[in-house]
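Why run this: before we spend reagent on co-expression, it is cheaper to look at a predicted model of the complex and decide which construct boundaries make sense. The entries below are exactly what would go into the expression plan.
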Amino acid sequence: MLALLAGVALIAAGCGDDDDDGGSTGAATSGAATQEAEPSDVSGTVSMVGIWTGDEQESFQAVLDGFNERYPDVTVNYNPAGDNTPTVLSTAVEGGNPPDLATIAQPGLIRQFAEQGALQPLTFAKEEIEANFPQDIVDLGTIDGELYSFVFKAANKSTVWFNVQAFEDAGVEAPATWEDLTSAAETIKASGLPAYSIAGADGWTLTDLFENIYLRQAGPEKYDQLTNHEIPWTDQSVKDALTTMADVIGDSDNIVGGTSGALETDFPTSVTNVLSESPKGAMVIEGDFVPGVVTTDLEPGTDYDVFAFPSINGSGPTVVGGGDSVVMFKDSPAGQALVEYLASPEAAEIWASRGGFSSANTQLSPDAYSDDLTRTTATAIAEAETFRFDMSDLAPAAFGGTPGQGEWKILQDFLADPTKVDQTAQKLERSAARAYRDQE
Amino acid sequence: MALADASSVPAPPPGLDGPDPGRWRRRLTTAAFLAPAVVMLGVWIVYPTIRTIVRSLFGRDGSEWVGLGNYETLFTTDTLVTAIQNNAIWVAVVPALVAAIGMIFAVLTERISWKVGFRTAVFMPMAISMFAAGVIWHIMDEKDPERGAVNAAIGAVKDVFGSSGVLSRAQPSSDALTGSIREGFTLQATVSPGDGALLGLTAIPPAEVPEGAEQAATPQAAGGEIVGTVWRDFKPGGGEAGVVEPEELGIPGATVQLRDTSGDVVSTTKTDADGSFVFADVADGEYQVAVASETFAAPFEGVSWLGPDLITPAVMIAYIWVWAGFAMVVIAAGLSAIPRDVLEAARTDGATEWQVFRRVTVPLLAPVLSVVFVTMIINVLKVFDIVLSVAPGSSQDDANVIALAMWRTSFSGVNDFGLGSAIAVLLFILVIPALALNIRRFKREES
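The model came back. C-alpha cells follow.
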C-alpha cells in the first residue's frame, strides 16, 4: 500500500523537475498522511465554480488534468464564473444547490458562507494543509476554530517595481529598509528623475501603500484589530503609519507630475511611467500584477526589476496579499480527493510552470516558476513570516472598496495634503465607524 | 381619446335598469384600449415612483423606519450638498450657454454656402454616447501635455511666447543656494574680488545637460575677479553636495548675475563648457552671485482640468460640446421658418442688422428658444454619465451632481438604498417645474 502511494507520488513529481527535492518530499508526506483510499477506488463527479476564466481557466484545466491522471474515475466539471462568482455562489447557496467545490477571492464571503453553515470544514485535509502552508494562511482559512479554506492562487501586493536604467543613472541599489528607500528616493530625485510614480486617481493603490506600511510598523496584531475595527483609526499607530506614508507622498517634486498630476494618474499610466524606454519616474509601488497591466518593450529582469516592499523598524519578511481560496460546499470522497490534490505542491507546480501564478505552498520548489521575477514575488509569499490579507478588501465595501468614497477618497485627500495626519485619521475613523455599523 | 368617447356617450334613459349589452361592450372596448398604457405606466412609472418615495423613508436595509432622517442626511452631508450646489450651477450656466452657442452657430451659418458641412460637424457629437464623449474629454483634459490635447494646445501657444533657457528645471544641491527657478538661485554667502563661488545644481535629468558640457572645473581667481562654476552637482550614488567631483559636468550657457548687497544686478555673464564663469574688473566690496532665472525655461506643466478646482467647468465644456449641435439644429429650423418679409420690412425701415436680430429675429424665435431651454434644463438636472466618465475618482466629490450622488449612494459599493431613494425623490421634485412648463407648452400648441 505504502509502496503504491510512493509510486504515485513519484509519477506525479516526475511531471515536474526530477531534481526537485522539496516537491517529492512534500508529495510523499501528503500522500502518506492523508490518502486513505486508493486513487482507483475513488470515483464520481465533482462540480466546481471558480473565478478563473480565459488563460487562467486553461491553466487550471491543466491542473485538473494532472488530478485526473491520478484519479481517472473522477470527473471534474469546472464552471468559470469570473467576477460574478460571489453572485453565482450566493444564489446557488440560497437555492440549496451549491457546487461541490468553489474558489472565492473574498474572505468576507467565505466567512459569511461558513456562518450560514453552507461550508464543509476541511478537517480531512487539515494535516496536509498545515504541513504545506504558512501558519498565517491556515489562520486566514480558519473560522471559529474550524479550517474552511486555503489559498490556492495567491497574490503579492508587497512589491516595488523599478526601472533599472533609472536606478543605475542615480547609482542606487534596490533598498531593503525604509531608510534605504527614502535616501535612494532623494538620490534619484537629485539625478533629475522623480522617484515615485503614484496612481492617485485609483484610491486602492493608496490603501495598499498604507497597509504595507501599517503591517510592518504597527505589527500583525494591530493590523488584525484595525481590520476588524477593534481599534479606532484615530489610534496612534494609524497616525504613525500616515506620517511614514508622507515620506513617500510628501515631496511633490519627487512624484511624477507632482501631487496634482498624481491625483489624475490612473494605475496603468503609473506603470507606464516607470516601465518605458524614457521613464518619467523610477519606481511604482504595487503588487505582482504590475507587469501584466501594460505592454512594454522592456525586458523583465534587465530593463525593469522588482524588490520586496522594504522592512520598517526591522520588520521580518512581510507580505500584504490576496488570493483565491478553495472551499467545499458538499462533502464526497471525490471532492475530498480534489481538495487534497489542490493543497499539494504538484498541483501548484503545474500552474506555476505555465506562468501567471503564485502559490503560498511552502513545499513548492522555487524552480517551478517559469521566470525570475515571478519566482521573486511568488516565493516571498511562501517565505513570509507574516502574511495578511489586503485590509481594505476585508473592510465593508462602503469604507474599503468604493471609488471616490471612504478610505479611497480620504487617502486621496491625504495625498493632496500629506501634512494633515490628524484630520485624515479622524476622517478615516468617521467613515469606518459608519460603514462597520451599517454592515451589522 | 377612447376615454373621452366613452364618457361622452349619453346615459341610458331612466327607468331602464335591465342590463344593456351595448354599454358593457363599449366599456370593455375602452378598457381593452386603455389597458396596455395603464399597465405600462403602472408597472414602470407609478409603482416605482411610489416605491421610491416609501423606500426613502426607511433606513439602509429597508426594515427600519427613519421618517425624514434620510432627507436630513441629504442636506447635511458635504458631498451631497456639493452635488445640489453643482446642479444649481449647471442649471444656471449650461442651458443658457447651449442656447446661446446654438443660436450663434445657427445665425452665423445661415447664409454661408457650406453650412451643411459645418452644421454636420457641430451636430456630430450628438451621435456619440454621453459616456464615450466623457471618456474622450477625460483623455483630452489630462494634465500631462504629452497626453492631454487641451494642455498640448495651450503649451504650444505658450512656447511661442515663452523664454528659452538651457535647463528646464533644477534644484540647489545644498543649503548654500536659495531661491527657485522663477527667481533664480542665489548663493547666500557674500563674495569679494579674488573669491570663487560654487553654484551646484541637482535634479537635472542626464539627457538635459546641454550639449558640449565638459567635466566641471573650478577656476582660480586673479586680482579684481570673481570666478565660479555652475555645474550638475550629481554623480551616480549622489556624490558629495557642494563639491566639484570627477564625473560631474559643468553647465554651459547658464546666465550668472553679480548682485550688490542691495540686490541690484551689477554684471551678467554666461558660463563656459566646463561651467566656469568670470566677472573681471570688479570694484572692491561685497557681492552676491546668482544663477539667473533666464537659465531656465520651465516646461509647461499643464493645467489641472481634472483637479478639484476646474473639474465642473471641464465637464460642462464636454457637455456643451455634445449639446450645442442639437440647439443649433433646432434654432436653425426656427430661423428658416421666420417670414423673410418681416425682416425685409425692418431693414427697409432703416434698422441695423443688430437691431433686426435683437428686435425681430429673437422675439420670433422665442418659442423655439424656450423649447431648447426647457429641454436643456431637464437634461441638465439629470446629468450623470458624462460627469462619471470625465471626473477621475479623486475629484468626483467635487464634480458631484444629484444623479451621480444617487447612483454612488445606492449602487457603487455603499448600497444605501434609503438615502439613494431620498436623493432620487429630490431630483424628481426638482424636475417637476420644468415638466409642468413643458406640458403647458404642449397643451398650448395643441389648442
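Residues 421-439 of chain A form the longest helix (19 residues). The interface with chain B takes residues 168-172, 186-187, 189-193, 200-203, 253, 257-258, 260-261, 263-264, 266, 269, 278, 397-398, 401-405, 408-409, 412, 415-416, 438 of chain A (CB under 8 Å). Bring this page to Monday's planning discussion.
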